[in-house]
Design goal:
The protein is an alpha+beta fold. The chain has 5 helices and 10 strands. Helix 3 runs antiparallel to helix 4.
Length: 242
């Protein structure tokens, strides 16, 4: 199966899975999502790192926002969004994403001293998905196969087909694992699988060093229309905070 057909099948599969779930239909809805909450044991002098990445699909950029935390640990911030999306939040050593929606409020109680899975407790919009997303039993990310432009040692020297097979099989294992976690809602499992699919595509995507494994094909995947539709409408908008 060539690469274009591979991506076509993967994207069509993801579209079908999204249709079966109850996740919000991607649509343009410019507004401001409200994220409020409290941070347990907060001390202003701790200089706690706290920032949020808000994706801007119109400009193709991400805006970094810095919530103002009151002395009692409470905060409220309006986050500009163009549709329901996952935004990235970094607080202390925690790095996570939260599903938000324009003109809706989500509340989070944060206790960074708790064990993983209990550090963030959500209420309000998408509370179930956000609470389940934090649980360690759910796989929400596929590690990159390259770092800072260099292939990891585990894939150095393998052929293009072996590299492709490795990425796809890893994605399938994670989907099988997530699908068996019936303690989580179908929406959460679907979104986790979509996130893993995006990471799988990213590992296979040129222009990265991994593209050198496919250079003999002398092709680029940038013109793949289904991939473009996937990136625009299906993938969760996970921002990169600089």
């Amino acid at each position: 199966m060539n690469m274009n057909r591979l991506f076509t099948c993967l994207c069509l599969s993801l579209l079908f899975n999204l249709a079966q779930a109850q996740l919000p239909i991607p649509e343009y809805q410019k507004g401001k999502a409200i994220l409020s909450g409290t941070i347990a044991n907060y001390h202003p002098n701790d200089n706690l790192i706290f920032k949020i990445g808000a994706p801007n699909i119109v400009m193709g950029t991400a805006e970094t926002l810095y919530p103002t935390v009151e002395s009692d640990g409470s905060f409220t911030i309006n986050i500009p969004l163009y549709h329901s999306a996952q935004v990235r939040m970094i607080i202390g050593n925690a790095d996570l994403v939260i599903l938000l929606s324009p003109e809706k409020e989500t509340n989070v109680t944060i206790n960074l001293s708790n064990l993983p899975g209990k550090q963030f407790v959500y209420s309000g919009q998408y509370a179930t998905i956000n609470n389940e997303w934090c649980q360690p039993e759910l796989i929400t990310k596929i590690p990159p196969v390259y770092s800072d432009g260099d292939l990891l040692d585990s894939i150095v020297g393998i052929s293009a087909n072996e590299f492709k097979k490795r990425c796809i099989n890893q994605y399938k294992r994670y989907v099988t694992h997530n699908s068996a976690q019936l303690q989580f809602s179908e929406d959460t499992r679907t979104l986790a699988n979509l996130s893993c699919a995006f990471d799988c595509l990213e590992n296979l995507r040129p222009p990265t060093i991994a593209c050198k494994l496919l250079i003999k094909r002398r092709k680029t995947l940038r013109g793949n229309k289904l991939l473009l539709l996937f990136l625009m409408y299906i993938c969760p908008m996970i921002s990169t905070i600089i």
